[in-house]
Design goal:
The protein is mainly α. Helices cover 83% and strands 0% of the residues. It starts with a helix and ends with a helix.
């Protein structure tokens, strides 16, 4: 019984870490820009 609780706890922790990483990846996809957009942004800040 004790080892099954430990196994369940490990799987729950792995699942929580997976969900957190997945949501972090999904939220960051909207911040991507192309190389030309990056160059335009850099030029806009320099002038």
């Amino acid at each position: 019984m004790n080892s099954s609780i430990k196994t369940l706890a490990v799987w729950l922790i792995i699942g929580i870490i997976f969900i957190v990483l997945l949501t972090a990846i999904m939220e960051n996809t909207g911040t991507r820009m192309t190389y030309s957009e990056l160059l335009v942004a850099i030029e806009a800040r320099n002038s």
